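Q: Structure tokens for this one, please.
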Amino acid sequence: MAPGARPLLLLAVWTLAAPVLRGAGDTGDGGWQRRGPGAPAAVAEEERCAVERRADLSYAEFVQQYAFSRPVILQRLTDNSVSCRAPPPHLLAGTCRRSRPVLTRPFPTVDLPFQDYVEHLLHPQDPSSLGNDTLYFFGDNDFSEWASLFQHYSPPPFSLLGTTAAYSFGIAGAGSGVPFHWHGPGFSEVIYGRKRWFLYPPEKTPEFHPNKTTLAWLQDVYPTLALSERPLECTVQAGEVLYFPDRWWHATLNLDTSVFISTFLG
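A: Here is the predicted structure, written as tokens:
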């Protein structure tokens, strides 16, 4: 998104777990600590990762083997371990207090300061909640408001001819996720935490209810699928980047409190 664009953050109607806002002098797990009514959902990684991991991939190999045909998890592609280490929530709330996210389509929008979202709406995932009952922070970000974050981010160096990159910053809690959907190609890097991905090629529409959370789908639908009907799946670790090709169906499930940045190629 170009500088000067309307300051819009999409707050998808899916779910999060809440961090405790700790003081700047506190030690611990980066300031991230879950709170709220009930423990975060216990979600494990898949038994076997079905997405190939590649380190030191060249651009030619990327284009020839993955860009138009299949997803891949890229390692050592970027290094955001220091310059873009996920700050604890009290720093994000303080530096981005003026950002006003809204609910994403197809649901009604809600105009909300980012600080209020962090302090009041990061609740643990309830497996029985419907998608339109919960909030998920992710979407288009205005560079003028998020410049202090994006100026330290090293994006994936690969691109596709005729596309323009647009960044999207997200913060989510254990058990949260985005239900199945598709769009253009892009990259998703986990800065902090872990994110489990479920992917189908464009010609294979997954079985899902659009207003059920990914956690509910994993518990209710996934066990009933024949092995041949199950998606490609893998858990992306902090520091890894997943590439998904154009029009591939995908759903996500955050296994921990997670901070991530996606690069959409439009």
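A few notes: Residues 143-150 form the longest helix (8 residues). The first strand starts at residue 9 and ends at 12.
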